[in-house]
Design goal:
This protein has helices at residues 3-24, 27-45, 48-61, 66-79, 87-96, 99-102, 105-116, 122-138, 142-153, 160-176, 180-189, 196-235, 239-269, 277-299, 304-329. The longest helix is centred in the middle third of the chain and has 40 residues, at 196-235. With 339 residues, it is mostly helical. The protein has 3 domains: 22-79; 85-194, Alpha Horseshoe (Serine Threonine Protein Phosphatase 5, Tetratricopeptide repeat); 211-337, no CATH class.
């Protein structure tokens, strides 16, 4: 026989075997599969009560068949969302299945208002979560999303997993909306709904805000005291001492800050994710602070206590300027310090 004839014979044999196996399938299995497929069609059409009847028929026809197992899964899903005789589920699925309606503010607003009247249950939770996701991501209306997420987290009928998800997204939305105090209050009111990392992040932002305020205060005190001291020196004719002392230190100061910026930037650039700009900018910020501190020291009180206080304030000012610089560039730079 020719190769083509052998191939045709093989195909015919496989077809005959498959047909025989299909006819050998028990009638109950075929009935279960048919009922399951009808249930899928009814579910796609939104006639959920008919789908429930079909899935139950599939289970009755052949309880051990693969179709019955799949029918049982869909039946459990539908029965968990059967509140209100499937009317809320129909309204939810109409929005959820349509990309156009899911991105339509009027449709989402209508669903959110309808959800307020839904009976307690899974559908009300899912409708509010869908509305919250739409407001938060596609429509950029965080305040409306915050209200929906809070309603989900506080709903007694909400399951623990969804409640934790809603609480975490709620806290994130509050932080993104620059309402740190509300985010802290929310986190402290529901600590069991947040994981340790999220709770630590919120508390870390509180610490960062405190440090920022202290840093600004330190810089303000430094500038005020240094300016006052230099103004007094000018009025009593001692300002030349400040100028002379600053000139003597200028070259050394320039060399020091240049070394700080270039050496630090070079080391940072050696790493794959390194960035030399913080070191270069820090050098630019450090130079005037060093020169002002030197001028202030030249005309300030020579007493030991005053000199020690100036030294501490100048050191604190350098740390404050570094903190504000890093926060302004990218707050992620502060994560290594627990901020």
């Amino acid at each position: 026989m020719r190769p083509a004839m052998w191939t045709g014979a093989a195909v015919l044999l496989v077809t005959m075997v498959a047909t025989a196996l299909a006819h050998a399938e028990p009638p109950g299995d075929r009935a279960a599969e048919a009922s399951f497929l009808l249930g899928k069609l009814d579910e796609a059409d939104g006639t959920f009560d008919k789908a429930v009847a079909d899935y139950r028929a599939a289970i009755r026809a052949a309880p051990e068949s693969a179709s019955a197992v799949r029918a049982a899964e869909r039946l459990d899903w539908l029965e968990a969302r059967s509140e209100g005789d499937f009317v809320p589920l129909s309204q939810l699925e109409r929005i959820r299945r349509s990309p156009a309606l899911s991105s339509n503010p009027e449709a989402i607003d209508r669903l959110a208002h309808q959800a307020d009247g839904f009976p307690p249950g899974v559908v009300r939770i899912e409708a509010r979560m869908l509305a919250a996701e739409a407001w938060l991501h596609r429509m950029q209306q965080p305040q409306r999303a915050i209200a929906e997420l809070r309603a989900v987290a506080e709903d007694p009928s909400c399951d623990p997993v969804t409640a934790r998800l809603a609480e975490e997204e709620l806290v994130d939305a509050l932080l993104a909306n620059a309402t740190l105090d509300e985010a802290v209050a929310e986190a402290r009111a529901n600590p069991t709904l947040l994981d340790a990392r999220s709770l630590a992040r919120v508390l870390g932002l509180v610490v960062r805000r405190t440090v920022r305020r202290v840093a600004i205060a330190v810089l303000a005190v430094f500038v005020a005291l240094a300016t006052t001291a230099l103004l007094r020196a000018y009025l009593r004719g001692d300002f030349r001492d400040a100028v002379h002392a600053t000139r003597k230190l200028t070259l050394l100061s320039v060399f020091f800050v240049a070394f700080l910026g270039l050496a630090g930037g070079t080391l940072a650039s050696k790493y794959e994710s390194g960035n030399s700009s913080p070191f270069l900018l820090l050098a630019c910020v450090a130079l005037p602070l060093v020169l002002i501190a030197r001028a202030w020291g030249a005309v300030g009180s020579p007493r030991i206590v005053a000199r020690a206080a100036r030294a501490l304030l100048c050191a604190a000012t350098m740390f404050a300027a570094t903190f504000l610089l890093l926060e302004g560039l990218d707050p992620q730079y502060l994560s290594g310090f627990g901020l």
